[in-house]
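Table S2 (text version). Query chain:
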Amino acid sequence: MAACNGKFPGADARKFPADPKERVKKNLEEGKGFTLNKTLGTTRGGVFDFASSNELWRAALDVIDFMPLSSVNYSGGIIITDWYSESDNLDESIKISIRFLTNELRADALDVKVFNRTCQKNLLNCKTIETDGILVAELKKEILKKAAIYQKQNKEK
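Corresponding structure-token output:
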């Protein structure tokens, strides 16, 4: 019944600047509204560009392109593969998860996890463990190396 007594929540004109530019500034500071700066090219760390222009994203997809993908969420910054095994040994398989912590080309920009699954015959009695071995380091290195190449190519254009 706020409308009946003439009182609207947050509608006190004394609390808002008369100048429209000041009102916009105040609203943005309070998290109300949006700006077009991100889409017009003035971005800061932690803001992800469109997928085809993000070198890390493209490089990660290229490095694991032989694996089937289970979940890919660009806005969430994660790629998860499905279980993959070589055709000669179906009882052992791996799954890779890549989280993007930033879109900057840095060694700590990626969180790569590799899971190994070993099963008895016909995928029975499976055991899954996370590995922290050389494969994680090699994947990170390959993704960063390929992303650096893409970044260099973009700068040359």
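Notes on Table S2: Strands lie at 69-73, 78-81, 92-100, 110-120, 124-131. The first strand starts at residue 69 and ends at 73.
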